[in-house]
Amino acid sequence: MGAEINDQESEDPKTRGGSPEMAEERSPMKNTMENMSLKQALSRLEAIVTELEQGKLTLDESMAKFEEGVRLAYACLQRLEED
């Protein structure tokens, strides 16, 4: 008997993946990112990448940093497309 996956849980964008728009909706950092300059957002994104590459974070911490990075990358892309 193999492991069963609950389809309902894996499709919930609040717990698994989802679009960047959905990530922004549940993000407590949304307002902070809106107030960041593109340079500040890119600097923060670089810091997140460095932290993840070091491999010293727990899985939960890594996932949180990854999600923050995705939100930042999406916000940067939106700003670049606006110009």
From TrEMBL:
GO cellular component labels: cytosol; exodeoxyribonuclease VII complex
Enzyme class label: hydrolase
Domain of life (superkingdom): Bacteria
Residue spans of biased composition, Acidic residues class: 1-10
Pfam families on file = Exonuc_VII_S
**Region named Disordered:** 1-32
Q: Per UniProt, which keywords does this protein have?
A: Cytoplasm, Exonuclease, Hydrolase, Nuclease
Query: Which Gene3D superfamilies does the UniProt entry name for this protein?
Result: Exonuclease VII, small subunit
One GO MF annotation is: exodeoxyribonuclease VII activity
* GO biological-process terms attached to the record: DNA catabolic process
Enzyme Commission code(s) on record: 3.1.11.6
NCBIfam families membership: xseB
Report the family membership.
Answer: Belongs to the XseB family.
* Designated name of the protein: Exodeoxyribonuclease VII small subunit
* Native organism: Candidatus Hakubella thermalkaliphila
